[in-house]
């Protein structure tokens, strides 16, 4: 039996054409004729991108503040910077490391006791002049007088200062943020009330009270706080 391939070979020989082993499409022949090369790398582009990153980093670094500052070590205000960032850390942590709890357990009661002492001394020094109203009694009526001695020789409004100290101490003892915020609000109220009260005192006592204001500059706290605890 003659195979199809043998007949094809005989026919090709008779026609004078060399037989083909297999049919290869033109596109395949072109792809096979090309050498296998690695993928082309865009080297200039990569270098340009690298240069862009480097330039961006240099720009960012150049825009940062100079942490070295001016002056020598110890002459650039380091204590202020240390205190600033320490308080940032303590506020974020919600406590002062190591001494936080003992400090609060002592500071709270101390503020309450100090506040009560200020209120007591204020009331004792005011005597019959004690009143919740910011408008003083008319000195012409004989019912009021200017008090500038005792604790009032150090603070112009010691009773308000005592109330603020006591409320702040209570806030710390009870660990109450709400009470502390209300104490801050109380400070602004008493500050405004004392300004109004002093306006009325100037109207009632004139230059006498104005001279007292100049002599006692501290409204709630004196320049030297320990003076208010002198007997």
Key words describing this protein structure:
mainly alpha; 231 residues; 8 helices; 60% helix
What is the gyration radius calculated from CA atoms?
Answer: 46 Å
Instruction: Classify the secondary structure makeup into a structural class.
Output: mainly alpha
Work out the helicity level.
Answer: 55-70%
Q: Tell me how many strands there are.
A: 0
The largest sheet, given as strand count, sense and whether it forms a barrel, is:
none
Averaged pLDDT, please?
A: 76
Order of helices and strands: HHHHHHHH
Shape: elongated
Low-confidence stretches: 20-24
In angstroms, what separates the terminal alpha carbons?
A: 139 Å
Report strand %: under 5%
Number of contiguous helices: 8
Concise account of the structure shown:
This protein has 231 residues and is mainly α. Helix content is 60%, strand content 0%.
Q: What do you see in this structure?
A:
With 231 residues, this protein is mainly alpha-helical. 60% of the residues lie in helices and 0% in strands. It contains 8 helices and no strands. It has helices spanning 4-15, 26-33, 43-63, 78-93, 100-126, 158-173, 177-205, 207-215. It is elongated. The model is unreliable at 20-24 (pLDDT under 50).
Helices and strands in order:
Elements: H1 4-15, H2 26-33, H3 43-63, H4 78-93, H5 100-126, H6 158-173, H7 177-205, H8 207-215
